Design the sequence.
């Protein structure tokens, strides 16, 4: 067996060239960082990726992934600036990775630099227009109060997913806040929906086919497990409707309710908190 | 090595080694492709494949069925789409796969094919930047080696004598006999806390998971077992964590294995194996899959 093994080693070395030996410590730290990110342990991910990068002999193919992984872990801890620095390093190494521009856009938004975030998302869309980039830039432009631009982006997403009620909802609310809402166009968008169930009643509110006082009752319909989530959403979107009608006083308590009661992984939770921060 | 032969092989699955080098001696292994293996956002291994002049990024998925291209790639490259006639293919989470496509001019690390058939996978089910899946339909035609630490995915001709294929290491290695199921998945037995469980090796799964039903049956876990902690709810329902102490297979000993417990109902894969051995554990290994011998050669990832 020993002689056989030597022959195998010889042949492989001849065909492929001698293979660089990996650093045990660097790769083990890298692997630990990947696993930590998947298990939601962001501090361990940062420590592990930092050790892998500092070792100096991590395989070059894995170095970009280490920067990206550490950036994601920083972002999960709201450490926005180190995340931007790591994504800068990643993008220098992987210039063709459009998704990294979107991720750096998130990091710039996290740091409060919405203009830089808009620039990154615009670069990503110019390189490869896709649903996620338009959706993210639409949400960003909504935060920047560039409602017409947000509506343009959501309209792009609607062309891809005309049946998705939440996308249509963000389109109509952006149009409402931009002052460009056309009830006939909105009615056509409603016709394309997969279902007239939730969140269709909210879309009807924006396009003028329903009244705001009917939304609380509408949120109570359907699957009982979904009702608390629908109530959370109703609070946020009706608040947006009030803001579109220049009535911040009516919007504020609804936003406070959404920020208090919506699940933390809901879009409406984050955006309600953002809107409330604008009142200060 | 006395003589070097140049030869071309036509292989059953359509990829041909256009120029491989071999030795006359019977125990040599012949590497036909060596690809750079990157890591995607979910920590899974990716390799490049050129399809009609476009370099695509494929997730290496030993738990797959047939190689796939994403619906976005099929649209971008304007590839034709055809319905799958016997449509019973579903993936984790119940995603249905009901279309296939045909692509020309395939180049996979120097292995070439004039035309190949791929299933079409909905783009949103893949991690960002992943264009498709490399599945056992291609891998089973070769021996394959996962060298995670050196970021290399190597493919070898599978005709060789029965030798130690852990050629990269002088240290101890494990040899694990396995079997293929009907879909070409690699299956073998492991012990989890002393209980024997049949696993499927799945490089397409970012983490390892066990069916909740199997875990309850094997370890007598009650509904409200205090050691079983719920993880975050996902679109596939709740998953749980349980403090397993060890997993062993063929001399490989994994302490505190990271195993998620997911019910078959929530995974919407009623025929799923009892345990999926995913990348959380596999990335710590260096593996050579000898497909003809049906044997897995394993060392630690950084062994050399």
Sequence:
């Amino acid at each position: 067996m020993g002689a056989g093994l030597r022959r195998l080693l010889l042949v492989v070395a001849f065909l492929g060239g001698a293979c660089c030996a990996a650093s045990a410590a660097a790769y083990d730290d890298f692997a630990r960082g990947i696993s930590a990110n998947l298990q939601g342990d962001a501090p361990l991910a940062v420590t592990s990726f930092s050790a892998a990068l500092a070792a100096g002999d991590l395989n070059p193919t894995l170095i970009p992934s280490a920067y990206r992984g550490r950036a994601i872990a920083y972002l999960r801890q709201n450490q926005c600036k180190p995340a931007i620095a790591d994504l800068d390093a990643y993008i220098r190494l992987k210039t063709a990775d459009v998704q990294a521009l979107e991720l750096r856009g998130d990091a710039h938004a996290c740091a409060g630099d919405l203009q830089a975030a808009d620039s990154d998302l615009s670069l990503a869309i110019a390189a490869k227009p896709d649903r996620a980039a338009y959706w993210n830039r639409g949400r960003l432009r909504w935060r920047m109060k560039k409602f017409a631009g947000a509506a343009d982006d959501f309209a792009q997403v609607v062309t891809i997913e005309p049946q998705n009620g939440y996308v249509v909802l963000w389109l109509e609310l952006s149009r409402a806040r931009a002052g460009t809402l056309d009830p006939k166009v909105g009615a056509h968008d409603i016709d394309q929906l997969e279902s007239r169930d939730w969140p269709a009643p909210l879309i009807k509110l924006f396009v003028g086919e329903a009244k705001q006082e009917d939304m609380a009752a509408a949120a109570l319909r359907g699957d009982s497990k979904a009702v608390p989530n629908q109530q959370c959403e109703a609070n946020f979107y009706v608040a947006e409707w009030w803001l579109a009608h220049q009535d911040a006083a009516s919007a504020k308590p609804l936003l406070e309710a959404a920020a208090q009661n919506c699940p933390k992984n809901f879009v409406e939770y984050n955006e309600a908190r953002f809107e409330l921060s604008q009142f200060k | 090595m006395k003589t070097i032969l140049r030869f071309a092989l036509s292989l059953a699955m359509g990829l041909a080694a256009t120029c491989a080098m071999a030795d006359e001696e019977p125990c040599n292994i012949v590497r036909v492709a060596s690809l750079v293996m990157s890591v995607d956002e979910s920590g899974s291994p990716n390799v490049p494949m050129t399809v009609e002049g476009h370099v695509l990024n494929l997730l290496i998925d030993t738990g797959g069925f047939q190689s796939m291209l994403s619906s976005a790639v099929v649209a971008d490259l304007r590839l034709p789409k055809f319905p799958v006639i016997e449509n019973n293919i579903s993936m984790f989470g119940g995603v249905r796969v009901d279309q296939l496509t045909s692509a020309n001019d395939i180049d996979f690390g120097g292995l070439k094919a004039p035309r190949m058939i791929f299933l079409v996978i909905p783009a949103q089910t893949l991690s960002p930047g992943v264009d498709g899946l490399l599945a056992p339909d291609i891998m089973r035609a070769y021996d394959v080696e996962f060298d995670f630490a050196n970021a290399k995915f190597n493919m070898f001709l599978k005709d060789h004598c029965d030798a130690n294929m852990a050629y990269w290491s002088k240290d101890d290695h494990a040899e694990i006999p396995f079997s293929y199921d009907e879909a070409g998945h690699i299956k073998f037995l492991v012990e989890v806390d002393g209980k024997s469980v049949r696993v499927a090796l799945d490089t397409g799964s970012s983490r390892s998971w066990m069916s909740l039903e199997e875990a309850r049956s094997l370890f007598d876990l009650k509904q409200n077992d205090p050691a079983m902690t719920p993880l975050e709810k996902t679109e596939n329902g709740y998953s749980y964590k349980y403090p397993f102490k060890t997993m062993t297979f063929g001399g490989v000993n994994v302490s505190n294995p990271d195993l998620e417990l997911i019910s078959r109902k929530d995974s919407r894969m009623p025929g799923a194996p009892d345990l999926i051995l995913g990348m959380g554990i596999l990335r710590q290994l260096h593996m050579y899959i000898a497909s003809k011998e049906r044997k897995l050669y394993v060392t630690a990832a950084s062994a050399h």
Q: What stands out?
A: The CA atoms of residues 46 and 266 of chain B lie 27 Å apart. Chain B is about 10% helix and 45% strand. Chain B has two domains: 34-156, 174-300. Residues 174-300 of chain B form a domain with the Cathepsin D, subunit A; domain 1 fold (CATH 2.40.70.10).
